[in-house]
């Protein structure tokens, strides 16, 4: 994501190549994340470490990209705050569960949220790289709408996750 920090979308000195490079690197990282999970399940090599580390890597990858989108003015501070709040809450539940030697894997809604986040980020990086200077408003509006959609999915998936794992709160007394 350092690549996206080399320039700023919509600025006078904007260089599209940096966003294109960031989009390609992000796409490769997202694909290898998917491939890793797919192969681990297919070859029955799912580990407790993978159940714990993979979601953390996803969070780091997507959250940093959303911070760049916020910097560029296409993603609201509120959206990023909701994403961070959900991720801290889910990580907290995972830590509570881990304290009793329980590992909680991501559920389907968390995966849907992550895919939507990744698609939104990919849209932004590639649209920012490929759109002309007169298309800044269109790219920003679409990206902003997608960010709010991500916020809804984030809150929804976080609520389901917390509800499904509410027993962790009872055990933490």
Short description:
The protein is an all-alpha fold and about 170 residues long. About 75% of the residues lie in helices and about 0% in strands. It has one domain (about 1-170).
What does this structure look like?
- The protein is an all-alpha fold and 173 residues long.
- The protein has one domain (2-171).
- 76% of the residues lie in helices and 0% in strands.
- It contains 6 helices and no strands.
- It has helices at 16-42, 48-71, 77-99, 108-130, 136-164, 167-171.
- The radius of gyration is 17 Å and the shape is globular.
- The protein starts with 15 loop residues before the first helix and ends with a helix.
Let me know the number of strands: 0
Mean pLDDT: 90
Percent range of helical residues: over 70%
The biggest beta sheet is recorded as: none
**Annotation field: number of helices:** 6
**Strand percentage:** under 5%
The quaternary organization reads as single chain
The SS-based structural class is: mainly alpha
Give the N-to-C terminal Cα separation.
40 Å
Topology as a string of helices (H) and strands (E): HHHHHH
What's the gyration radius in Å? 17 Å
Shape: globular
- Uncertain parts: none
Count of domains: 1
List the helices and strands and how they pair.
Layout: H1 16-42, H2 48-71, H3 77-99, H4 108-130, H5 136-164, H6 167-171
Helix pairs in contact: 1-4, 2-3, 2-4, 3-5, 4-5
